[in-house]
């Protein structure tokens, strides 16, 4: 927006709204709208090329001009004052620069393009610079101030001609005109001052503050009168967030929907940016996220091995079952299929035979309805048999083998003797009774007449001998091994 202000009498002021659609040749620009509001004399020496620049441009202009008191001009003045941040003037003309201000703080109307040799700055309320609308004036040569009818004890003029309003109020919003008296001429400019009500910190609420991790959604609402969606921000864990797979922000940015939360989402808040560009943030919402249990940890004393706790009867045994969840989990111990305890730990100062067996620790979160368990078996240690690498014989077995060896040797000797006698000997045995025992005499000569020949028949200790006498009769004798050899 370009607002032109020219010096001269107020009676000759006219306001013109010009919409210019132009194309700048050689730059490839499309048609662009420009709005120009001119305040000044009803003169014909203001040429559009001078206003639009020195570049060669083709313009199609629609001009709407009228007396300053007409209804249309009043509307144009309101639109111009709302859209303009200040008054930009042609070269050599003063201008007023204004920014939005907050109620209760100082507000400034700053002058630009002020020439040298200013004799007086005179500020007026409204679009006129008459005496009835004067607020205050300042004369730099004499450093003199003069108050006007619109003075409210909160206004002041700086040495540079700027208007300062302390403790600004909402009713200070409006048009302000400055008249600058120079040695050779007088210039005027009109600007708009906008005072905004202090926007309190936004409020915040949620449809719920307790959710189950990765399961329940949560909607958070930002309560503010700000209608510009670009001025509303959302913060999760202090970080500025936008719509993504985990969350969605409504088009007016006043509602944040979290599709699922995790245990690491600690804080949620919203904020706005006030007219001064300063952030204002709401209170925090601390969501309570229920989670777990994720696993079960089972500790034992003495230590277990592969879910087996080997121990003897009478030993001290400790079983501790732990898990992480929110809220805290409930515990149940099952022993051999029967409920035993609802504590997290079991202690056996002196283990009995009945206390051995299978134990199961069950951990459950009543809110998330998740359940985990861990099993362990208490039993006596298994005996590992001794493995011998050498040859080993017990004492009785050694005696048995010795006896058998001796008997076997005797038997072999007897067999050998028998074999030698029966196969290779040509002697005969001469038997006779001597001292109650049968005595045999071996000789290699043929048996003489009258001498009997003995023949052994049978085996064993008692053998049957058949003796043939010279007459051919045979006699049988039984005797033991007490045979004497001569």
Could you explain how this protein is built, in words?
- InterPro entries: Ig-like_dom, Ig-like_dom_sf, Ig-like_fold, Ig_sub, Ig_sub2, IgSF_CEA-related.
- Keywords: Disulfide bond, Glycoprotein, Immunoglobulin domain, Membrane, Signal, Transmembrane, Transmembrane helix.
- Strand 19 and strand 20 form a beta hairpin.
- The chain has 3 helices and 38 strands.
- It has 4 domains: 1-198, Sandwich (Immunoglobulin-like); 203-290, Immunoglobulin-like; 297-379, Immunoglobulins (Immunoglobulin-like), CATH 2.60.40; 424-486, no CATH class.
- A 5-stranded antiparallel beta sheet has the order 10-9-8-13-14, with no helix packed on it.
- It is mainly beta.
- Residues 1-91, 433-439, 441-445 and 473-486 have low confidence and may be disordered.
- The chain is rod-shaped and about 175 Å long.
Number of strands: 38
Number of helices: 3
Q: Could you give a short account of the major beta sheet?
A: 5 strands, antiparallel
**Broad CATH class of the largest domain:** Mainly Beta
- N→C terminal distance: 163 Å
Q: Give me the Rg, rounded.
A: 64 Å
Please estimate the helix content: under 10%
The largest sheet has its strands arranged as 10-9-8-13-14
Overall structural class, as computed from helix and strand content, comes to: mainly beta
The CATH architecture assignment of the largest domain turns out to be Sandwich
Which blocks of ≥5 consecutive residues have pLDDT under 50?
1-91, 433-439, 441-445, 473-486
Strand content: 35-45%
| Count of all domains | 4
CATH topology descriptor of the largest domain: Immunoglobulin-like
> For this entry, what is the oligomeric state of its chains?
single chain
